[in-house]
């Protein structure tokens, strides 16, 4: 089993060719097909978000509709141009579906509507969703594409920070707490872990908490032909996210795998605590699963 399809969402945020190059580097490493989905806001739906209704002056509604339409067209053209340039630079085959050969390929298309509804649905039938550029910059906004995709799709999501120019997953850190989310993240990432030359498992412990026994995960991975080492680190009052990223950096990891990582005896929400810290502070790509 290997990663065959990667969903990559884009919208009107001003992402450049470098964002596509980061995604294509992931595709090359996994020999996967990239499905780029550029989502344009439906002009008629914009009125709802702006608090406008049918009673609003018709001139204002028409002006708003035309402006949204024009901005959407320009953003889509810009995105398609960057996509074509990145494909040329990376030598990627353009194809609407994965190719028969073991090689990376890519396709660009656009959809109209609400990104928080479209992208989670599209992600359900992709092996993994990769977020780069504007959509990878998480905020606590209630209408957030990243948050919606992680929670609603049931699929793994990889975030590639802007600081990463050429992602490499040859060395991977697994932040293991034995929670159901973390178990799902590891299971979904098995094809990626199988390609790595180095896998490190890190578990953070606090006083009076039951240790997550990472050596059991080491044995599980061995049965899948994946060699791994395990470290158990005491929190000693420090942030769990900080310790995870510090350990990953020390081991020169190119990817961190976590799944709603729990903090001690307290259960965190999917974007609370440790997960939020990693999203805000990491300069290493990481894989999330809810």
Automatic annotation (TrEMBL):
InterPro entries: Universal_stress_UspA. Belongs to the universal stress protein A family. This is Universal stress protein family protein. It comes from Roseovarius litorisediminis.
């Amino acid at each position: 089993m290997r990663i065959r399809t990667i969903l990559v969402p884009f919208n009107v945020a001003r992402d450049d060719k470098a964002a596509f190059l980061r995604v294509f580097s992931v595709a090359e490493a996994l020999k996967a097909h990239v499905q780029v989905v550029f989502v344009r806001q439906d002009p008629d739906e914009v009125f709802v978000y702006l608090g406008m209704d049918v009673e609003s002056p018709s001139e204002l509604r028409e002006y708003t509709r035309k402006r949204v339409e024009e901005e959407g067209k320009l953003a889509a053209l810009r995105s398609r141009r960057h996509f074509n340039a990145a494909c040329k630079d990376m030598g990627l085959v353009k194809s609407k579906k994965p190719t028969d050969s073991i090689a990376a390929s890519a396709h660009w298309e656009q959809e109209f509507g609400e990104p928080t509804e479209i992208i989670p649905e599209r992600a359900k039938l992709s092996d993994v969703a990769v977020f780069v550029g504007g959509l990878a910059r998480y905020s606590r906004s209630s209408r957030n594409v990243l948050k919606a995709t992680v929670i609603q799709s049931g699929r793994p999501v990889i975030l590639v920070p802007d600081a990463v120019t050429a992602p490499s997953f040859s060395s991977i850190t697994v932040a293991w707490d034995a929670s159901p989310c973390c178990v799902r993240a590891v299971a979904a990432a098995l094809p990626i872990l199988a390609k790595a030359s180095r896998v490190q498992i890190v578990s953070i412990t606090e006083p009076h908490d039951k240790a997550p026994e990472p050596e059991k995960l080491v044995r599980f991975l061995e049965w899948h032909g994946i060699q791994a080492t395990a470290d158990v680190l005491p929190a000693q009052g420090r942030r769990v996210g900080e310790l995870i990223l510090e350990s990953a950096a020390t081991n020169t990891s190119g990817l961190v795998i976590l799944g709603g990582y729990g903090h001690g005896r307290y259960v965190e929400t999917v974007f609370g605590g440790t997960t939020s810290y990693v999203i805000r502070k990491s300069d290493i790509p990481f894989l999330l699963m809810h």
